[in-house]
Amino acid sequence: MQDMSIQEKLKQLRQQMQTHHIHAYIIPSADPHMSEYLPEYWQTRVWLSGFTGSVGTLVVTENEAGLWVDGRYWVQAEQQLRHTEIKLQKLNADPASTHISWLAKHLNPNDIVATDGKTLSISQYQQLSAALSKKNIACETTKDFISPLWKNRPALPKQPMYEMQAGLNHLTRLEKIQQVSQYLSTEHIDGHFISSLDDIAWLLNCRGEDVEYNPIFLAHMYISKEGETTLFIYEEKIPHELKQALLKDKIEILPYENSAKFLAQITDKTLLLDPNKVSIYHANALPQATEIVKNLNPTTRFKAVKSPSEIQHIQNAMLKDGIALCHFFSWLEHAVQNQEVISELTIDEKITAYRAEQDGFLGPSFATIAGFNANGALPHYRATKEQFSYIQGNGLLLIDSGGQYIDGTTDITRVIPIGTPTDEQKHDYTLVLKSHIALAQAIFPIGLPAPLLDSIARQPLWQESLNFRHGTGHGVGFALNVHEGPHSISYYAPVNKNTAMLEGMITSNEPGLYREGQWGIRIENLIVNEVVPHETQEYGEFLCFKNLTLCPISTACIQQNLLTDQEKQWLNRYHEQVQNTLLPHLTGEAKNWLIQHTKAI
Predict the structure, then answer these.
(1) SS3 label, residue 360
(2) What sequence ranges are listed for the domain Peptidase M24 (predicted)?
(3) Domain with 107 in it
(4) In this predicted model, what pLDDT tens digit does every residue of 524-563 receive, in sequence order?
(5) pTM score
(6) Residue 161 contacts residue 203 (beta carbons within 8 Å)
């Protein structure tokens, strides 16, 4: 990507800005689908700034350049921006810390801010224009200044999409489309336009390989209240047999580039758009007579609730993942004992290789985070060939990894002591474990907004004036994106009906604690919402969490005097479940490792 220096790129961008009388240009981390993981074509912010974190907003003015990132990326951004003129702007819960507030404060009345509207959601545009209009600052969304500069820009991916195996999905695509059209009819809405790729993949019971780690494909989609369906996609991506199946289901196929043209000619009086998932470019293409109904994609709610059969498939994926992890951790333990040369890169290679031995493995569900000591204190650290550490001496090794299987998506974090851990490391580790157990044992009313559960998990850390800067839990897709909404166990997330916890939702449980420059600790399992059985329902139904992840939690760092009897019982029950489930599938050293590491404390 580095075909020019960052300074030269900024210089050329500013020349374009000056030509068009633009006073500030915004480069978000986004594509026309508002995706988390982006095709290389849309990794504009990475190309222009050199910062490789997954989230961040770059703002360039005539004399300044700033990158806004949250606490997960402060250390990483500081390192990667060190030799550039781009200043790190620390984003936090304070609205005054945003790039929008900065622009409103630093720009002059009647200035013009520009961005590529294809990468700006409706909600983001509304927030930006509302703040800037107070100073009569205009917001221009038709300017793409990057394409003329990025000479060797990668092409958009056109990998083939494919249909999921029969029997994996609870509903057919026609039944799912009918769910959407029925919702539209009930709400008296004429049509619905969808840009979010995981929603489209879920609707069609198809998957793809256009985006790293996420089994999705580039497309937009339209559904009417009568069930008329149009798919906007590069036609060469669809194998002949699948194309015939889609046409048989009366799904019209139009070119990917025609989505805005289609919207411009639409006759719907009302159109449902998710303001967080549809670009202002597409919204602006609509006829003036069309009323935009802004609400969450109904598919986001539908796909978040997994059916019993889908949960069974996910449990099978967890079984395979657990088997692979036992082989990996058994290898790691012996390699450390034998003083083999191991680096953070080795960890990534080995854990992926053991997963690849399992049936139906498609690839990692995200970039493996293997951070030793200080590197583990970076929540989204990723070792590279240019910068990595060896696993040697004493310390803590944090490993956050996951797999995409044809029948499920996994995500797990474990921390392993290398050599002899210190008392302070053990203390921190035990506090994080207490936080993990606190959430795992939670019982709460069905429909409770997920963000309200966050304080339960953080309580053991808060009691010692400690905290962590990321959410405690995110939704996870069914053989789909590892990060999925609408629910999120994070006090940063909105508390409303869209974030309600319902039976069948899958969430991560991943509290952490990070000492900058020293070590990081995070313990993560995936959990699913189950209804608590009660003889009477005087106060309504309640939910509890069932653990899905099958892998021992290291006991070598536990200060047992900090755990209550109830917490010890929870850990022992979990390890008993892990052993009973995995033991019949293991032999040799992996089997011995599992027995050793699931002993009761």
Answers:
(1) coil
(2) 313-528
(3) 6-140
(4) 999 999 999 876 678 889 999 999 999 999 999 999 999 9
(5) 0.94
(6) no
